[in-house]
Amino acid sequence: MAQEQDCDLIVCLAAASNVTGILLDVNVFSALVHRHGGLIFWDYATAAPYVDIDMNPVITGPDRDYVYKDAIYFSMHKFVGGVQTPGVLVAKRVLFKAGETHPDGCGGGSVCFVRREAQDVEEREEGGTPAIVESIRAGLVMQLKQAVTSEAITAREEVMVK
């Protein structure tokens, strides 16, 4: 992936510490990596249940074109109501090359027909029998978080720690 994009710098950072909960300024680090021609992947496993996630934040200033995230990933089971939900990976399409002859890892389960010439990345990289109910639950959990709002979650946490 990095070789196709002439990228020598791939950075993976946690948006929040799993030990202390301290949040990184993801926009500052994203801009820094992108200004140096790199890719940045964010681990939101600790932060996702509590903060807003924006792949393409809109800001003003000299970093406005550099604060995007190339990919993020997190575990839905850390959310309220997220028991037995799949992990989530959100990545820019440019990271997936349609002409690849095979994926990095094979899926399994029931598939209708296997062919390497599938152009749609989701169809081509599908791992087999999907966790349909679990995926629906993940969507409901995200809707719950949006309905409650990150601001309300933060306010409640501040009350609890006092």
Offer a few descriptive terms:
Aminotrans_V_dom; flat; Aspartate Aminotransferase, domain 2; alpha/beta; Aminotransferase class V domain-containing protein
Reconstruct the topology from this structure.
Layout: E1 10-14, H1 26-35, E2 39-43, E3 71-75, E4 87-91, H2 121-124, H3 132-148, H4 150-161
Parallel strand pairs: 1-2, 2-3
Antiparallel strand pairs: 3-4
What would you say this structure looks like, in words?
- It contains four helices and four strands, in the order βαβββααα.
- It is an alpha/beta fold.
- The chain has a single domain (10-161), classed as Aspartate Aminotransferase, domain 2 (3-Layer(aba) Sandwich), CATH 3.40.640.
- The chain starts with 9 loop residues before the first strand and ends with a helix.
- The mean pLDDT is 86.
- Helices cover 27% and strands 12% of the residues.
- Residues 10-158 form the Aminotransferase class V domain.
- InterPro entries: Aminotrans_V_dom, PyrdxlP-dep_Trfase, PyrdxlP-dep_Trfase_major.
